[in-house]
Amino acid sequence: MRKRLNSWSWRMEGTTQTDAKIRTEYGTDSSSRGPGCSLRHFACEQNLLSRPDGSASFLQGDTSVLAGVYGPAEVKVSKEIFNKATLEVILRPKIGLPGVAEKSRERLIRNTCEAVVLGALHPRTSITIVLQVISDAGSLLACCLNAACMALVDAGVPMQALFCGVTCALDTDGTLMLDPTAKQEKEARAVLTFALDSVEQKLLMSTTKGLFSDAELQQCLAAAQAASQHVFRFYRESLQRRYSKS
Amino acid sequence: MKETPLSNCERRFLLRAIEEKKRLDGRQTYDYRSIKISFGTDYGCCMVELGKTRVLGQVSCELVSPKLNRATEGILFFNLELSQMAAPAFEPGRQSDLLVKLNRLLERCLRNSKCIDTESLCVVAGEKVWQIRVDLHLLNHDGNIIDAASIAAIVALCHFRRPDVSVQGDEVTLYTPEERDPVPLSVHHLPICVSFAFFRQGTFLLVDPSEREERVMDGLLVIAMNKHREICTLQSSGGIMLLAEQVLRCSKIAGVKVAEITELIQKALENDQKVRKEGGKFGFAESIANQRITAFRMEKAPVDTSDVEERAEEIIAEAEPPPEVVSDPVLWTPGTAQIGEGVENSWGDLEDSEKEEEEEEGGSDEAIVLDSVTVDPGVDGPSAGSRDAPIVLSDSEEEDMVILEPGKDPQTIRTQTVRAKQEPVPSRKPARRRRKKRPAQ
Amino acid sequence: MTEAAAVAAESLAGSKARAARTVLGQVVLPGEELLLPEQEDVEGPGNAGERPLRLNAGVRSRVRVVCGPGLRRCGDRLLVTKCGRLRHKEPSGGSSGGGGVYWVDSQQKRYVPVKGDHVIGIVTAKSGDIFKVDVGGSEPASLSYLAFEGATKRNRPNVQVGDLIYGQFVVANKDMEPEMVCIDSCGRANGMGVIGQDGLLFKVTLGLIRKLLAPNCEILQELGKLYPLEIVFGMNGRIWVKAKTIQQTLILANVLEACEHMTADQRKQIFSRLAES
Description:
The complex is a heterotrimer. By secondary structure, chain B is an alpha+beta fold.
């Protein structure tokens, strides 16, 4: 109980901080914006599959991922956990069979989801997220995270916050690019992917590739936090549209 | 996960409806559900929706050495995957009977019908040929997987473009899409599967069964045919006896259906090609139905990142500098070195229960004790001699640490720590140890 | 620039806890925090002078609010855990100064058993004294053969595997196997029991079921005018319907399925067209 209260008061501080941040962010002149600092066009369709309990297809530019969620559903006895739901993530590549790269991404996505899904509300059940890569044109992991989040929301799995994925790339002269394309990722010196939560834009997961300094890491994180505001706004608007008739 | 069972009332209702020539979704007996074909941005990528059944197809290619007995033929490979996304009962990585049956049928329909000219896939006879791989993923299962998969496979093959190659003498040059336009495969004809479900021992028949209809059917007849009315493969399963006239009637219906579907495929392909040529927008993003309230899109959004540098600097300035690391290694004995200061040994203050476990491990696993002992011959004598006495209960790791202590007599330190550990739980443990030891001896 | 300002304002609203009263009927997203009415008073500046007068102020501020699906207590606020429209129901009778019930109306498909819910289940197995019933939750519910009207050890109910059961949950919580009965507390069937062999079963979202079961639901009244029908709604998203002919049953099922995403006007058009044909 004490722990709960602590984290709560701390959260209050966090909120006021982000408020201040947003204000300064939009107060400054936006003409100095770099060419790479924009998100590609986003599209999302929910509930497009009839069989899973929740589904979403998420597009970021030409990158596209389809997600299906089952849960809380029955669980195999071998995987049963007595005090919380068993969360499983399956990532399927488009060509060939899943390999080590997919397993590693599955793990990253699962850890992110475990941080926000309230699994303790449904003990001895399974929550399965199946992700299918439809096309990879850069920032694939971020797109997987976004698709997983929208599918979880569609399935009505209880969560304490939403999450989103943002990929940043640093090219050879240190220019920062958000939501890079496959070509930009290939030419980049470093590629960083972050998962952020919607309440305080806190970091849920990060994975990096390549060389970068600590200052650049912080820059990328700050840029990802700014970008996450747009993603969450996109989530909100698409969900408002979805519930517009009910 | 298990499939939701089919109730008796659904089964009865479905069969009675079929007898009255009615279907759940309002179709007629010979009607297909609506077919939607959309293409991805890559070549050879397509999505086929047959009602709510959805299949994703992707064709890829690579240069491989040909099969020994077919030196001048390219290789065609089909792989249909039943993803758990499609239905809860599909388990990942399991070769179910249904999957094997569907893959075999696809191969017979598309490879054995020689619809793709495999000889044109040969680059250097006996050395290099193209292997064309067709990956099909079932994304949503609402019945009639085979028809949707066969359409997806042939559409993806027609849409696919492979890199151009040229051969000059022994030299094979592979061109990127920028250098030379990729070339399409030569497709002779388009074989398409048409499924017929039979009910009441073949008295009633339905085209394109849905998932619930499949659950109550008695038998299934699949006819693969092209638009020239050539039957490419024919399979009857489920163990029903069909009359020759029934099969003939089915093949006639299949002919009509195949003609319709072929026309649709060609239109879809032409449309996609036109859009690509004109430089318009293409890909799955364009095929999302915008009017649906479940769909939403956002145009390219600029993100203001002008202040990230300042914010990063702030955070770094606030952060504590990382502690200095001592990096000169200390060599204790030959083969043993230490870098840094290490952390304080916390093995001594274990909790009671934990300690017992540790001790048991240390005591029973003699190999470890001996291992560590051989490092320093000075410790060997006393520790070996006092094995039956309670002192030996210290675990092996602790002895390791003791050995590395410089300038002190290792033996005295060890007995000290052991005594400190002994104090909270006296007298009980030696007895336990002895009990445990006896059967071993 | 104006757009940027609007964004800033919206983000502000998004990250700060809003009062539950002001967002009633609006779409809420997981992670949002909602303030309860009494807390608004406490935090608002207007009532600051009144507070010291109340001796048991601390007790007063503990409002009795019931959190329905999609909401959880988080400290003294409500945390939204599901996406949907926020709904509120005033406490019945207005006694004990309760804050009523808040819940989130979502378009979920997966059912989670709730005590007291009436559901349609499919019998999957008979084992000894109990039937195993599939209700669409994470595990099958158990149903004793004695939990039918007039059932005794001698006089067992006639239930086969694959039959449909309309029953009520008496035990349903996250840690235990759910248990169903087909009798009310007086031992009467009260409409529950085995559903007949005819008719059609189909699945819709849980939100649509709640909409249809709401008092004075227009859809049902309009349906009733169309054909004479027998209909059973299970809170687990299953509907069983039976009309005079197969054709009529099919029409009813398809209309009900389509109702979810239709506005009232579109629905009226469809019903009038059906009535003509």
